[in-house]
Recover the amino acids of this structure.
């Protein structure tokens, strides 16, 4: 009987020991997960943004060779379809063949573009310029970035649409370039929305439709 | 006649049975607890080359996930940001801090920051971010509360059943697309109301967006 008792004790102690050693399920660990059949799990193919020693710069994601142009799809502008590699206002913000900025957004400005612009502005611009564009984004509130521009500044309101596009694409002064992060359509969408934001500060109640003016003045 | 088996052997079958039951139980429990992706993957938190904190950037500062992971709506792959994205702020914030030396170096030379990948499905599984994100499946469903993590860890198991649980009943999990990157979003603070709204709106989204319930093997193994 004594044997049975001690065996029972050992057996019962097992789970406690195991649990004590292995810990709670899913606890934080620095050890990479085990892959039982590594040749099935990791096949000989390239994944983006991984190290790869085949290429001189050591990464699997390569930049396109110098001089190549991506054709991709044409953009529908107010002046017809334009490909991304063309020297056109929609791609550069400048009038073709000159360095003068275009005055007006080359994309058709409709509700869809403005809504897209608002969404993108809130993602990419609001952290610094604030959701209303007054320059009071979170970075200014934290006091880490004092020099953020107020987008309702007279100078910026007076800028051509093309210059705003150019600023977003290439950055300016302390502001980084957003061209690499946002496709062309999104940059123009932000320009369109920024115009709406600026207008919202310049307008008066007289700009409202007549039937709504009374309600607003109340 | 002397007994071939001494008397104590009478209790042997019982004892053996008990031992087998307990050992078997322990092994089963051990495998279920520690040999499934719920343990082997969940909690994996590699040491990163830069102590980048989602809690500070996404949580406290409220940066949208797409500010950095800007390919997540367009591509199967949710890209990690290049160093120039960090430098948009860190050319001014903590400009000379040694914590960010790797980032500055990378921005100057173009050499990528050697981030360690946390989530990685096996190569025989096809996964696609943009399909999920544009159908109102939030990051939180698959990555947990990243905005509260100092360092990113693997929060969900990513086993086949994990994927299928949602694919069988997407209505339970999808939300308005504008809220996909707001990890703390909920229909209502009242749980009962939230569950009810999820049920009605989820079914509506599934209908309006023609969301399919993808369970055939070729959806994920192609």
């Amino acid at each position: 009987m004594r044997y049975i008792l001690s065996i029972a004790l050992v057996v019962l102690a097992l789970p406690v020991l195991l649990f004590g050693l292995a810990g709670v399920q899913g606890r934080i660990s620095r050890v990479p997960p085990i892959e039982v059949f590594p040749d099935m799990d990791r096949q000989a193919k390239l994944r983006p943004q991984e190290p790869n020693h085949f290429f001189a710069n050591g990464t699997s994601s390569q930049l396109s060779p110098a001089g190549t142009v991506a054709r991709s799809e044409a953009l529908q502008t107010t002046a017809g379809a334009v490909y991304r590699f063309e020297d056109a206002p929609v791609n550069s913000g400048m009038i073709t063949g000159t360095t003068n900025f275009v005055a007006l957004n080359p994309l058709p400005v409709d509700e869809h573009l403005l809504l897209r612009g608002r969404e993108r502005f809130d993602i990419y611009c609001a952290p610094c310029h604030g959701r209303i564009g007054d320059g009071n984004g979170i970075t200014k509130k934290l006091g880490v970035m004092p020099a953020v521009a107020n987008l309702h500044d007279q100078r910026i309101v007076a800028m051509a649409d093309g210059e705003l596009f150019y600023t977003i694409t290439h950055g300016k002064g302390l502001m980084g370039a957003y061209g690499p992060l946002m496709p062309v359509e999104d940059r123009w969408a932000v320009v369109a929305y920024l115009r709406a934001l600026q207008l919202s500060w310049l307008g008066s109640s007289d700009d409202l439709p007549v039937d709504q003016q009374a309600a607003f003045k109340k | 006649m002397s007994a071939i088996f001494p008397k104590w052997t009478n209790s042997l079958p019982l004892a053996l049975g008990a031992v087998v039951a307990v050992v078997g139980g322990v092994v089963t429990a051990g495998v279920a607890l520690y040999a499934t992706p719920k343990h082997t993957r969940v909690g994996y938190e590699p040491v990163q080359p830069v102590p980048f904190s989602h809690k500070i950037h996404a949580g406290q500062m409220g940066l949208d996930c797409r500010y950095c992971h800007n390919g997540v709506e367009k591509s199967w792959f949710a890209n990690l940001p290049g160093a120039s994205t960090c430098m948009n702020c860190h050319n001014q914030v903590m400009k000379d801090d040694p914590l960010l030396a790797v980032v500055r170096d990378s921005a100057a030379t173009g050499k990528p920051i050697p981030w360690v990948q946390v989530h990685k499905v096996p190569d025989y599984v096809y996964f696609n971010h943009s399909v999920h994100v544009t159908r109102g499946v939030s990051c939180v469903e698959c990555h947990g509360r990243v905005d509260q993590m100092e360092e990113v860890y693997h929060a969900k198991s990513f086993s086949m059943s994990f994927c299928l649980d949602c694919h069988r009943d997407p209505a339970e999990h999808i939300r308005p697309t504008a809220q996909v990157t707001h990890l703390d979003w909920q229909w209502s603070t009242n749980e009962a109301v939230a569950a009810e709204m999820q049920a009605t709106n989820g079914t509506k989204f599934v209908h309006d967006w023609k969301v399919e319930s993808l369970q055939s093997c070729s959806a994920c193994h192609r």
